[in-house]
């Protein structure tokens, strides 16, 4: 059952990736439309990524790889929202880091669906590196200061 589920999730990831790559430019622009994410809403995205990543790691430790793969897919989707936010602010460096985070989260999901926890762990490290770079430029403070705030003058 585990192998069948893993193959099913992997096949779904391949189909979604292929469909995304063949989406016409005008349709991709329509997907990006919608209500803009505000500076006040942005911390919720960061909290979603952080809490989901913690849950994902716990599931990996318990060898619940298919469930962890779902968490990785949710993280990838949230990175898409992070990308849209920074694109709306014309922050190309942060857009790049969000894209790297999204790609790494997608790779985590694919590795987990294939049952490769070692590869997933490596990709989690790649994802964390993109987070660290962006936080170094844009984040002011952390849990000890009451949450996520942008550095003065960055947004």
Q: Biggest sheet: strands, sense, closure?
A: 2 strands, antiparallel
Q: Helix segment count?
A: 6
State the secondary-structure class: mainly alpha
CATH class membership: Mainly Alpha
Q: What fraction of the residues are assigned to beta strands by DSSP?
A: under 5%
Going across the biggest sheet, name each strand in turn.
Answer: 1-2
Stated plainly, the CATH topology is called: Four Helix Bundle (Hemerythrin (Met), subunit A)
Features:
about 160 residues, mainly alpha, Four Helix Bundle (Hemerythrin (Met), subunit A), two-stranded antiparallel ribbon, 6 helices, 2 strands, about 75% helix, disordered N terminus
Task: Walk me through this protein's architecture.
The chain has a single domain (2-21, 39-150), classed as Four Helix Bundle (Hemerythrin (Met), subunit A), CATH 1.20.120. The chain starts with a helix and ends in a 5-residue tail after the last strand. Strands 1-2 form a two-stranded antiparallel ribbon. Residues 3-32 have low confidence and may be disordered. The protein has 6 helices and 2 strands; from the N terminus they run H-H-H-H-H-H-E-E. Helix content is 75%, strand content 3%. It has helices at 2-21, 25-32, 42-61, 65-88, 92-113, 117-138, and strands spanning 139-140, 149-150. By secondary structure, the chain is mainly alpha-helical.
């Amino acid at each position: 059952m585990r192998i069948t589920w893993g193959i099913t999730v992997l096949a779904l990831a391949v189909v979604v990736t292929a469909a995304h790559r063949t989406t016409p430019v005008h349709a991709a622009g329509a997907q990006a439309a919608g209500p803009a994410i505000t500076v006040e809403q942005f911390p919720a995205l960061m909290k979603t990524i952080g809490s989901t990543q913690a849950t994902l790691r716990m599931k990996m430790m318990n060898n619940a790889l298919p469930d962890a793969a779902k968490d990785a897919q949710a993280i990838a989707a949230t990175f898409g929202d992070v990308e849209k936010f920074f694109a709306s602010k014309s922050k190309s460096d942060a857009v790049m880091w969000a894209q790297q985070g999204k790609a790494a989260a997608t790779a985590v999901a694919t590795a987990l669906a294939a049952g490769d926890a070692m590869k997933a762990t490596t990709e989690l490290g790649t994802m964390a590196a993109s987070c660290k770079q962006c936080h170094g430029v844009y984040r002011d403070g952390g849990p000890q200061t009451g949450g996520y705030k942008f550095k003065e003058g960055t947004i």
